[in-house]
Fold:
Amino acid sequence: MPEADVSKKEKQYYADVPQKTEGFFLKGAGNLDWGMKNRLSHIFNPRTGRTVMLAIDHGYFQGPTTGLERIDLNIVPLIPYADALMLTRGILRSVVPPSITKPIVMRCSGGPSILKELSNEELAVDIEDAIRMNVAAITLQVFIGGEYETRSIHNMTKLVDMGMRYGIPTMAVTAVGKDMVRDVKYFRLACRICAELGAQFVKTYYVPEDFDTVTASCPVPIVMAGGKKLPELDALTMAYNAVQEGAAGVDMGRNIFQSDAPQAMMQAVIKVVHENMRPKDALGLYETLKKKKKK
Ligand code: 5RP
Structure:
């Protein structure tokens, strides 16, 4: 990746020194307004400072994704386990019971389908509608390096401005288009740009090399995206490594709802994220819960 910052001096991330946030449990959120802090406290558990979000918004650009064909049957039973739900307003209103008390992270961007250039997105929800749905946060993709990079960044700054007016935090998702490199340099760049331009938290992918420099150089919390379906142990290991290396939790989709036992997987991920359970133990828990469910 080309780099404008060509200083010969080695960068120092001080990954072992946590960033101080006076008066609040969440990184970078100390100076936010009460409403915003309160919404963030619904998403992130104030006891652990972490979250396990369930992402089910894939249909907004790729239609009925495997595992999401019937959200009423496949996903609604998972809701009690999640700390927060990331989804579109269409699914929220048509399928999700309004009696749930879980915080909603509302997908607010859209436009192109998988048949077109994905970075060509627009904002797709009015802030008034987000308020009407009582959301805890609003979210969109940011395509750093993508064909419509500037548009997607401006979408984000507009969403942040709208959210600021009403105390609703914005989660920026660092999108990786088909041809984009997924290395640590890229994620450091993308996450930092999102935070600098106002996102209150950022969702990004895990990279095995130096992920702690991605979290250390981003002044707001990072939640790890799950990505493609992996074997359960690999997915649990990735979640474990991400939180040990500074992520404030996960926002996982396919690795949960495409698992053979989504409820068991959800509970195993929760143990990893909130209780630092080791991946092998979490896999054991997953297998036990999976067997129980079959009986
Ligand atoms: C789309 C998204 C999705 O919500 C999310 O990242 C997909 O989740 P997963 O990769 O875990 O299936 O933000 O880019």
Q: What stands out?
A: The radius of gyration is 18 Å.
